[in-house]
Write a structure and sequence with these properties.
The protein has ten helices and twelve strands. By secondary structure, it is α/β, with parallel strands linked by helices. The chain has a single domain, classed as Alpha-Beta Barrel (TIM Barrel). The protein starts with a strand and ends with a strand. Belongs to the metallo-dependent hydrolases superfamily. Phosphotriesterase family.
Length: about 300
């Protein structure tokens, strides 16, 4: 059974043009043993971030938090209603380091089925359906875990149509990911989003990846330890000049409590409060509008299939 082309939000499927200004990669809830004490668990803090984002003109947020890392899917519909911000949430699996051995062992042999169920039936008892699949590569390589999760993601894509979003470790491994997903596993490039390209500012690799037809997300600005804000205009201009302006996405990727605006960090509003005017000064208002408004809808709107 096939439904109309739409973006799957926590409140139901909507046309791409209804997303509005979109933070294409962020987190309202997230918890990992790799970030002890920095978990995103507070509903009131999530509400405050969304409210602040909306005050800057934000219309949608895509939460990339995958299976087992505290998505709190049951809280998302109410947060969307209360703030007026559309929310897309994810299924998928992160790098192995974020999970205990028992959790991973319990998913062996059924990972693709879990992804498909969360995309079509809902996440646990909440009934909230995921709108994309998030997986992750390693540093300049794809280990056995990455190949396992990406193979399951490809199976789930072929069953449902869902877009696959990929965490690139420090922005590396983009071409290896495309060779696996789009080459070996047959996922159309336009159904792949590569995340964190800003963390490895290799403009040649960026152009090669974009030429495949995939989407490139520049996410996680405001971090001094990443090659982000000051190089981002040049990277985006290179890609736009090469004809890839319709493949670019922007996101905030807030992953720690300290990074939230309510705790004194840049948080979700920073993307629109500081990054948007900075990019507009260099790239022009029209291109930045397309990156924030048009491109996310095309990246996430799919012809949903139900197996």
């Amino acid at each position: 059974m096939v439904s109309a082309v739409a973006v799957r939000t926590v409140a139901g499927d909507v046309p791409a043009e209804e997303l509005g200004v979109c933070d294409a990669h962020d987190h309202l809830f997230f918890g990992s043993p790799q970030l002890p004490g920095q978990e995103l668990r507070s509903v009131s803090a999530a509400r405050a971030e969304l409210t602040a984002f909306a005050a800057q003109g934000g219309g949608a947020v895509v939460q990339w938090t995958p299976y087992g890392l505290g998505r709190r899917a049951d809280e998302l519909p109410a947060l969307s209603r209360e703030t007026g911000v559309r929310i897309v949430t994810a299924t998928g699996l992160h790098q192995a380091v974020h999970y205990d051995a028992t959790t991973l062992a319990g998913l062996r042999g059924r990972l693709a089925d879990v992804f498909v169920a969360e995309l079509t039936e809902g996440i646990g008892p909440s009934g909230v359906r995921a709108g994309l699949i998030k997986v992750a590569g390693g540093f300049h390589a794809l280990d056995a875990h990455a190949r396992w999760t990406m193979t399951a993601a490809a199976e789930a894509h072929h069953a449902t149509g869902a877009t696959i979003a990929v965490h690139l470790e420090l922005g590396t491994g983009a071409l290896d990911v495309l060779e696996l997903l789009c080459g070996e596993l047959g996922v159309p490039p336009q159904r792949v989003i590569l995340g964190h390209l800003n963390r490895s500012p290799d403009f040649t690799v960026h152009r090669q990846a974009a030429a495949s037809g995939c989407y490139l997300a520049f996410d996680g600005p405001s971090r001094a330890n990443h090659a982000t804000d000051w190089r981002m205009p040049d990277a985006l201009r290179e890609l736009a000049d090469a004809g890839h302006g319709d493949r670019l996405l922007l996101g905030g990727d807030t992953t720690t409590a300290a990074a939230r605006s309510v705790n004194g960090g840049p948080g979700m509003p920073y993307l629109l409060r500081r990054v948007r005017p900075r990019l507009t000064a260099d790239l022009g208002e029209e291109l930045v509008r397309r990156i924030l408004t048009d491109n996310p809808g095309r990246a996430l709107a799919v012809e949903w299939r139900r197996p």
